Amino acid sequence: MDGRFVGHAIGTIIKYPPIYNIPSNLLSPVVGGLQMVQTHRGFQATYKRLDTIQAALQGLQNSVGVLQATTAVIGVGVAVGVVLSAVNLYHTLKLRKEVEQLRLEVNQGFIDLKVALKDQGNDIITRIDEVGKDIKFEAHKLVLIQAYGKFQEALRLMKTALLIEDISTRNITLGNAQLLLANALADYNNPHLLEQTCAAGHLRRVECAWAIEQTMTLTYQLQNQPAAVSDRLAHLQDKIRQDSLTVVERCESSDELDFLFPEITRIQTHDLAMLQTWENQADWIGSLPPDELKQLNSADFSSSEVPTNKNNTTDINTLEQPPEQLIYDNLKEKSHFISLRDQLKFLIQPELRQKHESYISQQAISTGYKALAPSNWEPIPDLTVANLYWYFKAKAEPAQ
Which of 50, 131, 353, 383 is 20 to 30 A away from residue 248, measured at CA? Predict the structure, then answer.
């Protein structure tokens, strides 16, 4: 809690400048979104763009494969910084690009990471070998392989359903896919396995579960059930926030936070925004009167342009550092581990700031720093709140 941190906080609280702004040109989401899968065209019209839906399903499959594969480096126990940096947000996005461009193959939910990370150094290759020999990880891997197999089979059923014209048969096929997805989710959310993993490994497992939840939501859209879609998306957003908070609570080191902070920031500011937009569109579809819904579903969109993902042809070697990493690097210069961890919690659940704000106000008044007890906390950045809180904590409760 040295002076430079609180000094920066004092300067900020008086001038109220923003510490950082989330850029609007974010890259792809961490989990891999369904791009709202034509919701604005009407649920029935979804079937008029099979290529778009199939591409979205393939994207989700790639995302789960890459996210799951990185657990072969992270392992079950605590991983050191050099290991986590090899599969951080930047390198995970890079791996996904390589899979999309068919440079890497996902086999049973895993990638040959010795090939994928060969340029990361001998320490990483050694770590992959060590994790591969770990009995606990081997048990985890078997469960993950089985779960991924169920996920793959569900995707195959969904792709088949897209080709079925009879609505009853199509819905039965989608129902079978839902059962497989539910079973896969149970494996990924297995509390016994999650409690054995470090914070980074926990995050990667729940990210896989979130992607499968998205896939489950799509099945309800394909069944023309906007209310169910909206309900699933609302639940998923709540789950992402709660899972993220659980992961941060389990973070015990700066190395882990270096891995978690940029990735969870991306999830909170980008993935959740995409899901909220999808939910809003589903609500809009559900609110349309029958005559307008009929017009929307009967409209011909065959000649309309479908946005393409130009990033699929991006040169992997020119992929830039994600903006969230740059934001975190900036914050690290002005803060410390325990404060940064609180800032990440505030991003996930802003209400958690209130306890810190109250404590700062009490301490500021009692110690004669009334300028540090503003009447309106809203414009005060999370960085300032967290730094001041731990500054006053250190003064009030000096180490014994």
Answer: 131
DSSP-derived letter for residue 189 is: T
Which residue in 225, 211, 320 sits closest to 274, CA to CA?
211
* CA distance linking residue 31 with residue 60, whole number of Å: 8
| Euclidean distance between CA atoms 50 and 219, whole angstroms | 14
Q: Is 251 left (phi over 0), alpha (psi -120 to 50) or beta?
A: beta
Separation between Cα atoms, residue 49 and residue 124, nearest integer Å: 42
Q: What is the pLDDT of residues 231-240, one digit of tens each?
A: 999 999 999 9
Sign for the pseudo-dihedral over CA of 388, 389, 395, 398? negative
Looking at residue 26, its pLDDT comes to 28
- Name the residue with tokens 């309900």: 231
Quick one: pLDDT at residue 265? 96
Cα–Cα dist 322/175, whole Å: 38
Q: Which amino acid is at 385?
A: V
Q: Which two tokens stand for residue 358?
A: 């109250």
CA dist., res. 28 & res. 38, Å (int):
18
**pLDDT computed for residue 38 by the predictor:** 45
Q: How far apart are CA 210 and CA 217, in angstroms?
A: 11
Backbone dihedral region of 75: left (phi > 0), alpha (psi from -120 to 50 degrees) or beta? left
Segments of 277-343 assigned E as strands: none
pTM for the whole thing?
A: 0.84
| Residue 39: Cβ within 10 Å count | 22
pLDDT score for 53: 80
Query: In which residue ranges of the chain is pLDDT below 50?
Result: 1-28, 33-42, 306-308, 310-311, 399-400
Point out which residues pair with 110 in neighbouring strands.
107
Residues 188 and 190: their CA atoms lie apart, in Å, by 6
Contact (CB, 8 A) for 256 and 198: yes
Other beta carbons less than 10 A from residue 320's beta carbon: 10
Contact 352, 389 (CB under 8 A): no
Q: Among residues 150, 55, 148, which one has the least CA distance to residue 110? A: 148
Helical segments of the chain, H only: 3-15, 50-69, 71-74, 81-86, 89-100, 113-116, 122-133, 135-161, 167-188, 191-194, 199-222, 226-249, 254-266, 272-287, 290-298, 323-332, 337-348, 353-366, 382-396
